[in-house]
Structures are given as structure tokens and as C-alpha cells.
Design a protein that fits this description.
alpha/beta; UDP-galactose 4-epimerase, domain 1; 2 domains; seven-stranded parallel β-sheet; three-stranded mixed β-sheet; 10 helices; 18% strand; binds nicotinamide-adenine-dinucleotide
């Protein structure tokens, strides 16, 4: 089938594009390359270099392409940026997203897959792992913009009959992750610094826990969502909390890193402990995570080792 992946030049979107193409689909990527990169983009994908805020450009591109499915990964995806400039975050994640959504309805798109964030919606969860019905109380404008867009999907379904699924990701890691970005990328930052023998700083006491999922498992979830899970919201997650100190220790072993971590101040507004229940995705999408943390970390270290060697 013909699929449009917005944000297909980014870390996660590019893996989804690769998986769709490997499964025999015809894929186009819509991206402004603001954080994405050309080297990430699969050579077999058509590229539409566009900002989602460009309403007329997006409408014309989607009308000309007429995809069967639109998979919307493009976003302002950094929590600190959303705190510094909530208006910009909303312009990209809400207004830009609506440009893509409206154009999809006009072009007769069969299904819209929206990428939301489980980590940014619930605040400090009441239970762990939290399921999709846990009350939403985002701590950042980024979480609020993701939640708002989920609401618009319901509206577009009721008004225009547009079929959709929402995938709420946990903390995703793996090859191509940007280790320069400051937010939520502990594995990429630690691995890239350890292979280069550089000091590593842990924010807070390191006992804060996250739900870490390898990007290859995320790509598979996006394949299952092409035909399943209509109208549903799903956690794409491991369901297991892992502390930053545990990640540090596992990565230090894999990289033969001997330095002790430095401990910095805890980041304001950070959730302390979270994991996301993935029972619904297992049941309705027939999806489950397959990459163990050990395998995923080993692969990620190999990637960053190669990156560091190639920049020397
Ligand atoms: N990385 C995670 O752990 C995580 C967790 C939960 C949700 N998500 C979501 O997954 C999606 C992908 O995130 P990622 O980590 O791969 O980030 P990323 O920054 O690598 O990818 C985002 C992509 O969107 C593109 N983009 C940004 N603004 C755009 C605009 N105005 N117009 C067109 N394209 C634009 C970027 O160039 C980039 O290619 C985002 O929607 C993000 O919110 C990520």
C-alpha cells in the first residue's frame, strides 16, 4: 500500500520507513529536516521536503500523493523546548498536525496513525505500569500538545469517519538516536560518551526509572497498526521500569568503561518513576516487544562505537 510517513527522516520515523519498505509498501517521507537527517532516509522512499506548518504545501502534497495510510511522526519532540517556547510547540504539534490531518481527510486517506507519548501524558503515575486509561495530567506543553491532538483525532473520526490509531510510545532508544539533544536520551548520551571515554553525568540520584523500548520493536508496532487497532490508543512499551543507574551499569560493562558517574542536580519537572502497561497492544494489535534490554543495548553500543570511530 502507499504510505506517507511524516518525520520519516528522524530517529524513529526512519526505522518505520525502513520496515514499511522491507514489507513491500510504497513509502513517501514528509519532513522539513529540522532535526531529521538525509542519511537516515531510505533511498527507495520519495521525499517531500516540507514544514507541516505550511498548510497549502501540505495540502497540495497529500492531494497529489493520495496515500492510503498517513503515519504522523513529525513533531517538535523535546520537552525542554516546549517549556521554553510553548507557542512554537503548539504551532508544530497541534497546528502543523491539523494541516496533515485535514489534508488526509480531503485526500480520502483510509487510516491515520498518530504517534503520541506515554511518558509525557500522565505526570507521576498513580500505578506502575500505568495503562492507557490512567488519568492524563501532562507536566509539559509537549505532553499537552500530544494529548490535544489525540482529542482532534476523535473529533475527525466522529465528523468525517476517519479511521485512526494512537501509538503512545515509551522511551525509545537505538541506532540513529540524536545524542546531542538534551531530553530523555540517557542511553544515547551514555553510550556515545562511554565509547569515547568521556565523563558521564547522571541527573539526580539515578534511581529515577523509565520504560525503555528498542526502536526495532517500535517499527513492528507501526506495521501491525496498518490494519489493526482502529479507534484504539496503545502503549508501545516494555512495561518494565529500569533505573538510570541500572542503565549506566549495563552500558559501562558493555563498553568496558571504568569511570564512576558524576551526579548532577535532578531535572525540574521530570517524572521520577514510570512504566507503561502494554496489555492492550498485545491483545488488539497482536504486538509484543521482542528485543531484550541486553540485546538492544549491545546493538546500540555497536552503533555509537562506529559513529565515534567514523568522526575521529
Ligand atoms: N524518542 C522517544 O523516546 C519518543 C517517545 C515518545 C514519543 N515520541 C514521538 O515520536 C516521534 C519521533 O520522535 P524522534 O525521537 O524520532 O524525534 P526526531 O526529532 O528524530 O524526529 C522528528 C522528525 O520530525 C521532523 N520535523 C520536526 N518538525 C517538523 C516540521 N515542522 N515539519 C516537518 N517535519 C518536522 C524532524 O526533522 C524529524 O525528522 C515524535 O512525534 C515524538 O514526539 C518519541
Amino acid at each position: 500500500m502507499k504510505i506517507l510517513v511524516t518525520g520519516g527522516a528522524g530517529f524513529i520515523g526512519s526505522h518505520v520507513v525502513d520496515a514499511y519498505i522491507a514489507a513491500g509498501h510504497e513509502v513517501a517521507v514528509l519532513d522539513d529536516f529540522s532535526t531529521g537527517s538525509e542519511v537516515n532516509v531510505n533511498r527507495e522512499a520519495e521525499v517531500l521536503r516540507l514544514d507541516v506548518r505550511n498548510k497549502d504545501g501540505v495540502a497540495a502534497a497529500i492531494a497529489a500523493l493520495r496515500p492510503e495510510v498517513v503515519n504522523h511522526h513529525a513533531a517538535q519532540s523535546e520537552v525542554p523546548k516546549s517549556v521554553a517556547d510553548p507557542g512554537f510547540d503548539a504551532m508544530v504539534n497541534i497546528v502543523g498536525g491539523l494541516n496533515v490531518l485535514r489534508a488526509s481527510v480531503d485526500a480520502g486517506v483510509r487510516k491515520f496513525i498518530f504517534i503520541s507519548s506515554g511518558g509525557a501524558l500522565y505526570g507521576e503515575p498513580d500505578v506502575i505500569p500505568a495503562d492507557e486509561d490512567h488519568p492524563a495530567r501532562p507536566l509539559s506543553p509537549y505532553g499537552t500538545s500530544k494529548l490535544s491532538f489525540e482529542q482532534y483525532l476523535g473529533t475527525f473520526h466522529r465528523t468525517y469517519g476517519l479511521e485512526y490509531s494512537v501509538l503512545r510510545y515509551a522511551n525509545i532508544y537505538g541506532p540513529r538516536q540524536d545524542f546531542h539533544a538534551e531530553e530523555g536520551r540517557a542511553i544515547a548520551i551514555f553510550a556515545s560518551r562511554m565509547v569515547a571515554g568521556k565523563p558521564v553525568t547522571i541527573d539526580g540520584d539515578g534511581e529515577q526509572a523509565r520504560d525503555m523500548l528498542h526502536v526495532a520493536d517500535v517499527a513492528v508496532a507501526n506495521i501491525t497498526a496498518l490494519d489493526r487497532g482502529a479507534g484504539g490508543t496503545f502503549h508501545i512499551s516494555s512495561g518494565i521500569p529500569v533505573t538510570i543507574n541500572e542503565l549506566f551499569r549495563k552500558l559501562a560493562l558493555l563498553t568496558d568503561y571504568k569511570l564512576e558517574p558524576r551526579f548532577g542536580p535532578a531535572r525540574k519537572g521530570d517524572v521520577y518513576r514510570i512504566a507503561l502497561d502494554n496489555t492492550r497492544a498485545r491483545r488488539d494489535l497482536g504486538w509484543e516487544p521482542n528485543v531484550t534490554l541486553e540485546e538492544g543495548l549491545t546493538q546500540t553500543v555497536a552503533y555509537f562505537r562506529q559513529q565515534v570511530l567514523s568522526t575521529r
